[in-house]
Amino acid sequence: MSNIFLGFFIALLFWPATLFSADIDTQLNAANEAYKNEQYTISLERYEKLYSAGYFNEKMLYRLAFMHENLKNYPQAIYYLKKASQEYGNPGSEAKIKQMMQMNGSSRLFTADAWDTYFLFFNNWGLILWIAFGLITAALALSLILPPRKPNSIRAVTLVAGWTLFVLLAGFLAHNIFISPKRAVITEATSFYNFPSYAADARQYVFSLGETVSIIDEEDIWAQVEAGGREYWVPKRVLKAL
Fold first, then answer.
1. Helices (H), the chain
2. Are residues 31 and 99 located together in one domain of the fold?
3. CA 21 to chain centre
4. Do 193 and 144 belong to one domain?
5. pTM for the complete prediction?
6. Domain-terminating residue out of 78, 103, 128
7. What is the edge-to-edge ordering of all strands in the sheet holding 212-219?
8. Which residues sit opposite 186 in a β-bridge?
9. What is the pLDDT of residue 236?
10. Are residues 221 and 170 in the same domain?
11. Parent domain of 168
12. In-domain check, residue 39
């Protein structure tokens, strides 16, 4: 009897996740089918609903970019291209982004920077780095709990190497979590303010529509953004986070 209750309890735990996964699959299949039938309005709506729920894949991002480009909604098309490039890597994306910005009447002020490579590397190798960090941490903990009975030069060298890797991995992972900037694409026209207030001095055309910026501070409805060494405040509503 206890096994039956245990099985029922486990099923209850996983049931919501199973339903969510099934719903995602249903919506994705419907969006893909609409896209194949060139029902782009329906497909666009369903893909964006999936994206808002936190689901995306490479093909879906490129399809979203393509459909927004056809609608001449270039900032949104640029956003999805940039997201695909950041998550999956595509050296040709920047040339396409530059072309769309020119079609939108603006210019590419700041090309792809080292953050593109950084985030792509972590997306590809992040899980492996976390596993390696966990294994090294466990091994070092065991070495402290179970000290050797006799001095051993090989073990000493191994410990030095282990602690070195531990520090390097801990620093890299901490940097990714706490220090690496949040990035966003400017998807709506805006002025650029010296302070987080509409009463502050403002400039036009500091950054172009479709430009990728780093968010370095936030205050109420405002975000302080940076690119190319320039820092200004903009309303959060004009940004779409990557």
1. 2-36, 40-52, 58-70, 74-88, 93-103, 114-145, 153-174
2. yes
3. 21
4. no
5. 0.74
6. 103
7. 202-203, 192-193, 230-235, 222-227, 212-219, 182-186, 239-241
8. 239
9. 96
10. no
11. 114-179
12. yes
Domain check: are 141 and 189 in the same one? no
Token pair listed for 69: 């480009």
In a domain, 152, yes or no: yes
Closest-CA residue to 240 (of 202, 213, 218, 219) = 213
Query: Tokens representing 176?
Result: 């990714």
**Is residue 15 domain-resident?**
no
Task: Count up the domains in the chain and report the number.
Answer: 3
Residues 58 and 41 in one domain: yes
Based on the domain organization, do 190 and 233 belong to the same domain?
Answer: yes
Q: Which residue is associated with the tokens 């969510």? A: 20
CA distance 67 to 101: 16
Written as six digits, the tokens of 164 are 């070195």
pLDDT one digit per residue (tens) for the chain, 242 residues:
445 544 544 444 444 444 446 688 899 999 999 999 999 999 999 999 999 999 999 999 999 999 999 999 999 999 999 999 888 887 778 888 888 888 877 766 665 556 777 777 887 788 899 999 999 999 999 888 887 777 777 888 888 999 999 999 999 898 888 877 889 999 999 999 999 999 999 998 888 888 889 999 999 999 999 988 889 999 999 999 99
